[in-house]
Amino acid sequence: MREGVDCLKRVKLLHCGDLHLDAPFTSLADRDGMPEQRRQELKRMLGRIINLAVSENVDLLLLCGDLYEHGYVRKSTFHFIYEQFRKIPNLPVIIIPGNHDPLSPDSLYSRCEWPENVHILKNRTDFYEHTLTGTRVSAGMPQTSSTGEAVASHAVSLLSTRGGINILLHHGTLDMAFSSDAYQPVSSAELDELGFDYCALGHFHSVIRGAGRSERIFNAGSPEPLGFDEEGEHGVFIVTIEKKEDEESRIHADFRRIGQRRFINLEVQVGGCLTDEQAVSAVVAAVEGAGGADDLYSVTLQGYVNRNFRVDTAYLLELLKDKAFYIKINDRTMPDYDFGSIAGEPGLRGLFVRKMLDRAANAIDEEGRQLVMKALYYGIEAIDEGSVCV
User: Fold this and answer.
1) What torsion, rounded to 10 degrees, do the Cα atoms 111, 105, 186, 92 define?
2) Residue 7, by phi and psi: left (phi above 0), alpha (psi -120 to 50) or beta?
3) Residue 283 half-sphere exposure, CB side, CA atoms within 13 Å?
4) CA 324 to CA 318: how far, in whole Å?
């Protein structure tokens, strides 16, 4: 314990979670070998986290749930995890199960032997005491009612006495509607009331910095993004907590971006393009402006194009394959028809357009509207040309 005459306690930790080792990556299954490559990259991410913990000389490594995917995890992956943690025998690793790696009779947490430095907090009364720094790490988040009211008495009893540093690990939903779909929901106000010096959360894949009135609630997010709904920065927290007896603790949380790749969504206007090469130039400019060749892109083509030209998305992907680690093309372009004028025409053509525009206006969501508009374009093409090129 680093103590002086002023009884200062200090602990340095690495806070992470949501690695999802052996995730299926079904959204990338359209490319041969891509899901497996991403799974291997997640394993390498765990190695980078271990190396960062060593280089930063942290006292504790905290993993806040969803270390692996229970339904997909392979025995070889457990051996990999075991060897990674065994390399750091003097660094305590504290883990709580999440909703993707739940504590169950057939889980890795129940049926496998872990290295001696790994401490799995298996229930809400478990804690780990780090005597060298006077730190207690608890998984003591109380059960919450459907209205979010905490029963906090036993959680408070987990707080270390003697002015120690108290850390809470929790994997669950923060400050969102307490619906039946929410996993272990909790509010910032509840966490503030518990009196912990630092609340280390998992479950959300985005970063939360200093939430709550006390600004002591942090979520590192997923260190490596898992899908196109996880844009932005991804990494871990290196946290230093200092506390003097009878004083509030001080927190310095440094976010480290260590994600190897990014998922990036782009909308690219290709209206006016007459060739696939022109469309490629527009996409390349957007991709190079948004990220690099190591990233994954979902590109949605927008705009009105000449009705005699239809973007060849397969050809576009072939021309763009060296510009990104992964790229998919969503063609939302529309033929350049003046539906307002056509709707005013007498006869079948005008009647069809009026009916379809009315359906599009009353669609329940954007996906439904897009589907109606696609049918409208195909219908007009069939009326005008006598056939449809799909």
Assistant:
1) -10
2) left
3) 32
4) 11
CA distance 199 to 201: 6
State pLDDT tens for residues 209-237. Answer: 999 898 999 999 999 999 999 998 899 99
User: How high is the pLDDT of residue 86?
Assistant: 96
Please state, in angstroms and rounded to a whole number, the distance separating the CA atoms of residues 380 and 151.
Answer: 63
Residue 188 pLDDT greater than 90, yes or no: no
3-class secondary-structure state, position 232 = coil
What DSSP state is assigned to residue 136?
Answer: E
Nearest to 345 by CA among 384, 304, 295: 384
pLDDT at 157: 57
pLDDT of residue 6: 60
Please, what is the Cα angle at 324 between 321 and 330, to 5 degrees? 75
**Residue ranges of the chain assigned to CATH 3.60.21.10:** 8-257
Looking at this protein, which amino acid is placed at residue 260?
A: Q
The answer to whether the CB of 70 falls within 8 A of the CB of 100 is yes
Residue indicated by tokens 């942090």: 218
298 by DSSP, 3-state: which?
strand
Per-residue confidence band for 147, with pLDDT thresholds at 50, 70 and 90: very low
Question: Mean pLDDT across the stretch 94-114?
Answer: 93
Query: φ and ψ at 13, to 5 degrees?
Result: -140, 160
CATH of domain 8-257: 3.60.21.10
Return the closest-CA partner of residue 172 out of 191, 186, 192: 186
Name the percent of the chain lying above pLDDT 70: 90
**Is pLDDT above 50 for 2?**
no
| 3-class DSSP assignment, residue 373 | helix
pLDDT value at residue 304: 82
- For 390, the token pair is 């799909």
Residue with tokens 């990556």: 25
Q: State the average pLDDT over residues 165-178.
A: 83
List C-alpha distances in Å: 239 to 68, 115, 390.
Answer: 24, 24, 55
Total-model pTM: 0.82
What is the Cα–Cα distance from 58 to 24, expressed in whole angstroms?
32
Query: What is d(CA 390, CA 181) in angstroms, rounded to the nearest whole number?
Result: 39
The answer to whether the CB of 213 falls within 8 A of the CB of 243 is no
